[in-house]
Design a protein that fits this description.
heterodimer; A: mainly alpha; 3 helical TM bundles of succinate and fumarate reductases; 78% helix; elongated; B: mainly alpha; 4 helices; 70% helix; extended; binds protoporphyrin IX containing FE
């Protein structure tokens, strides 16, 4: 960022035309993940059991379903950003583009299934 | 991209020759690699398992039972796969969480002094192992 023209330095966009958004969003989600994952581990540890009835009634509560939705959004966005860096580090040339597309597909597809499943349990009729 | 000379240094610039690392091993380097490995492990194995678990739960009792069967014995306790995945993912989470906190602290410019930086790196691993042990002991004692 420091070696371009002065207007380039002011914009701070660098050669990827992305600026610091990627780095900053990785940090923002890191902070959110810290709280969400600590909550998740405490909540799991305090479950009365891991059988269907216990876990189902746990996820039905808004106090669990809403943090779980936030967790999926924050974590999945975070690892999408993180794996992008890993691809950029090791893959070069055309293969990189293919991997980036696959990464986005993987993230969006798994996130959609997770969110749908949480909503289905939380909004479904009492079992 | 194809027109760019391929001899330019790449990041991370690991090797200076056949199996000759540019770096000398130390706790900081180990933690850096662990952060990447644990993040990648959770993002792949962890994501698939989380999604499978949630989808099975939403699909109903039978689907949930077949999910549980993969990781438990007929008595309901964890089988070998259950232990390996369970301990692997919890240790990965706590290691990544601790080395992630280390990242955020060092982002502020703190803890770069040689001795502090080394102690901090070792501490992330000690705390990660302690939290993993505490988590499983708590589950076991219930
Ligand atoms: C628990 C709280 C978490 C914190 C504090 C955290 C923190 C961080 C930080 C600061 C980075 C950036 C590292 C860098 O710039 O080199 C990062 C990278 C990453 N994180 Fe997390 N993270 C957390 C949870 C997770 C979870 C649950 C996953 C996966 C499901 C994950 C996957 C990743 C991946 C794949 C990377 C990229 C690693 C790399 O570039 O080598 N993180 N994390």
């Amino acid at each position: 960022m420091g070696t371009g023209t002065s207007i380039g330095r002011v914009r701070g966009l660098g050669s990827a035309h992305q600026g610091t958004h990627h780095w900053w969003h990785q940090r923002l989600t890191a902070g959110a993940n810290l709280f969400l994952m600590l909550w998740f581990m405490f909540s799991l540890a305090r479950l009365s059991g891991f059988d269907y009835a216990s876990v189902h009634s746990w996820l039905r509560s808004a106090w669990v379903a809403i943090p779980m939705l936030l967790l999926v959004v924050s974590i999945f966005y975070h690892f999408r950003l993180g794996l992008q860096v890993v691809i950029e580090d090791y893959a070069h040339h055309e293969g990189k583009v293919v991997l980036m597309v696959l990464l986005s597909l993987f993230t969006v597809a798994t996130a959609a299934i997770a969110i749908f499943a949480i909503l289905k349990v939380a909004l479904g009729a009492a079992a | 991209m194809a027109s760019r000379p391929t001899s330019r240094p790449r990041s991370p610039h690991l090797f200076s020759g056949f199996l000759r690392l540019n770096y000398r091993w130390g706790p900081q380097m180990l933690v850096s690699i662990l952060h990447r490995v644990t993040g990648d492990g959770m993002a792949t194995v962890g994501t698939v398992l989380l999604v499978w678990w949630l989808a099975a739960l939403a699909a109903g009792e039978a689907a949930y039972a077949s999910f549980r069967d993969v990781f438990t014995t007929s008595t309901g306790s964890l089988n070998l796969l259950g232990w390996v995945i369970g301990v692997g993912l919890t240790l990965s989470l706590f290691q990544h969480m601790m080395s992630g906190i280390r990242h955020l602290v060092m982002d502020t410019g703190a803890a770069f002094e040689l001795k502090t930086s080394k102690t901090f790196a070792v501490a992330t691993m000690v705390v990660a192992i302690a939290l993993t042990a505490a988590f499983w002991l708590y589950l076991g004692m219930k």
